[in-house]
């Protein structure tokens, strides 16, 4: 039974349809694997009882011919999605004891399609981080280790628990959210595939807000096809989110035909950044050749404002965060400091409830929105954001999609890059620009570095063109033939 | 530009986050560094550029002005640190003289 956890979602659906195993068996094998992998700290809350109950109901539906698109598939849910009756923390002490009384639209859609929830995954506090080291519930450990040492590595962030769980085979797929790279960077660090769709493709209703103009739900799985399957279910218009797009959801699976003949892929010259390891530049070059061999044309494109993307992001995201996080005041839910004076109660509740990185970002955001600085920082950043977005639109006049590395390094050790917030922010250098422009992006594992750690390539597409992004990712996946899995996972299978 | 302790104190108060002197002191270099980093935006020529607030071209939808939710007092109060008789309870906000 142990190798049920090695199946892809697509294979598992076939197996369930063929009665090779039941949804209950599939759920139980994942629950067992979760118990063996507690040390990864990938989950904040495990929900085995819910999973088995849902799996039982799924088996009944399948027996009566009513199976949905993801019926019986065990998934992990980033603990930023509100789940009715199940504690939801955003990895923050300030939401201590918060149990939503409603279901987020994304998780509702997944449940409506029959999927099974194994638990809520760990993340950086309020999704603010690139290493999953800011969680109130502790660090997530990447299942991968370097060949050369045994140090614990970060899974990336902020959706580190989701990415680690998919890589460690303790769920078949997972939800994530991506504000500046929080799906794509951890997918790259954990050797799996992660997709952020176009801003507005998935409803944000019931997803705890970080930076509302950037936040977008997305998917993690071990294949491009599985990502397409999950995304098809999660996408779609929701009247409860005014920024969700009233657009038809294409059949993302149908796009995976491996035919990229006649496509033009842009290689942005500004993404040649000083200090990028040679292995990453070489992998990027290899990716370019793979796509050419598959019949695509590649051209150099220019995204001239790339160098300003991080600074723009670190004005806009903290500003929106400082506004969004104003709601945590100890009055309606979560942690409250027992103070007699109202202002003391607010200030001490927030001092106790928020961690260092969240405080830092609230402070930066409050500063940049405060009187006298609003035009100089916030409005200025919004103007540069337009220039960054226009760069992409001009590039897309020449090409159908853009190929870049996903991150400037492989997974780093826990504790590294902690001395300087800017150094940590640089992790998102290749993912933030597409976030600012609201574009769909995917990270596909494409190779290993000299230390045996996975590296990812990113494909960025035009707005609403997830189909080409997935199609091109599917070609890279086939040619890269990335079959490496973490040693800890191999050991268990043996 | 660097930010001084007085400004940090003011920002902490606006953000309603209590900080002791030591924490305020430690915020000064951290915030100064981040602000120094974001100040590179001043190099960019943004004359005649409109600020971008929403990346996707979606018009905000309007709906009929009819109630479509409600009667869920129990759910609204379910997570309250303190509630009574259908209300959230907070520390006294108005001095009783």
Distance between the termini of chain B: 47 Å
Mean pLDDT of chain B: 91
Sheet of most strands of chain B:
2 strands, antiparallel
Low-confidence segments of chain B, given as residue ranges, are none
Rg of chain A from C-alpha positions? 21 Å
Number of helices of chain B: 3
**Strand count of chain A:** 11
CATH overall fold name of one domain in chain A: Amidase signature (AS) enzymes
Major sheet description of chain A: 11 strands, mixed
Major protein interface? A-B, 73 and 53 residues
Which CATH class of one domain in chain A applies here?
Answer: Alpha Beta
Percent of residues in helices of chain A: 25-40%
Q: What's the order of the H and E elements of chain A?
A: HHEHEHEHEHEEHEHEHHHHEHHEEHH
Q: Strands of the largest sheet of chain B, in order across it?
A: 1-2
User: CATH fold name of one domain in chain B, please?
Assistant: Histone, subunit A
CATH architecture of one domain in chain B: Orthogonal Bundle
Give a concise summary:
The complex is a heterodimer of chains A (about 500) and B (about 100). With about 500 residues, chain A is of the alpha/beta class.
Task: Write up what this structure looks like.
The complex is a heterodimer of chains A (494) and B (97). Chain A is an alpha/beta fold. Chain A is built from 16 helices and eleven strands. Chain A has an eleven-stranded mixed sheet, sandwiched between helices. In chain A, helix 5 (160-167) packs parallel to helix 6, helix 9 (309-324) crosses helix 11 and helix 9 (309-324) packs across helix 12 (374-395). The longest helix of chain A has 22 residues, at 374-395. Chain A is globular. The two termini of chain A are 12 Å apart. The model of chain A has no long low-confidence stretch (mean pLDDT 96). With 97 residues, chain B is mainly α. Chain B has a domain at 5-42: Histone, subunit A (Orthogonal Bundle), CATH 1.10.20. In chain B, strands 1-2 form a two-stranded antiparallel ribbon. In chain B, strand 1 (83-84) and strand 2 (87-88) form a beta hairpin. The radius of gyration of chain B is 23 Å and the shape is flat. Chain B starts with a helix and ends in a 9-residue tail after the last strand. The model of chain B has no long low-confidence stretch (mean pLDDT 91). At the A-B interface, helix 9, helix 10, helix 11, helix 12 and helix 13 of A face helix 1 and helix 2 of B.
